[in-house]
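Read as chain and fold; for instance:
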Amino acid sequence: ALVLWGTDNLKSEGGPIAQALALLGAAPRFDSFGRLCGACLLPTEQLSHPRIDVMLTLSGIFRDLLPLQTRMLAEAAYLAAAADEPAHINFVRKHALAHMAKKNCDLETASLRVFSNADGTYGSNVNYLIDSGRWDDEDELGDVFAKRKCFAHGRNGQAAAQADIMASVLAGVDLAYQNLESVELGVTTVDHYFDSLGGISRAAEKQKGEAIPVYIGDHTRGTGVVRTLADQVALESRTRVLNPKWYEGMLKHGHEGVRHIECHLTNTVGWSATTGQVAPWVYQQFTQTFVLDETMRDRLAALNPKAAVKVVNRLLEAERRSFWRPDAETLDALKRAGEELEDRLEGIGAEVAA
């Protein structure tokens, strides 16, 4: 399962699109004027691997900005499914024929692999559930993703809800992957990453019955480096939010800087909820750095009392959901800090002093 974003493909001149086509064993097709008009299959002799079955989840921006590329990807999947090739070298056809036999549908439907939102809508809303904390179990997150992103794009460029084929494709997903294209943003910087890549991971886990590995292709410094999601989150935690150079720079921005620190924590919780691939030490170090250090806690509360309270509440939420298991002493200190910050926010401490 690959996640494709519009801005990332524009900046990289279609790098992630090229990855998808390479896995399918396809290439762009151009008309006599040099304009993109579809896809064509590469001969199997030119491929170093079988045709890999690829599920593509498009952002709403990709869908809006790149309609020709969307149709090209849909056509590439159809051509692969229609190719008269043995199953062991064409997994797209193998899975499409199996779905046709099970659901008694046509090849056009069985070969749908490009999914996005309904026209005019954006995102999976998994990020909103995480931010509000109003979700009961991880399957709920996967259900929201599947409901929002089940609109499949065909070769004609039209999209329609196709929940059955999406569930079938999700059940066969072996891994989920997304490129990281900007050095300014990381997977814990903004919630869009776990909203899409995390969402599809959770939806696939529900259909498959087991967790799938999640990978990040870091292309921020030229040569690409592929990391597991766990390694990427650990790297960003060490180099950004737990790095004194980073958080001291944030705190110079006052109110907004504290909000950014809190956002990193919320996004990290989002990855725990959607993938379960965040190491517990991340929450432990966050607690020690920003909450148990009384001086730091006072600074956060003075600059942005609401965000400071949210930091503690988010850490306690992570503990309740078993994303980490602090010892009794740490948990007790965390709860006391939360009560103190709540009192400050409500002005109770100031009234007592008066």
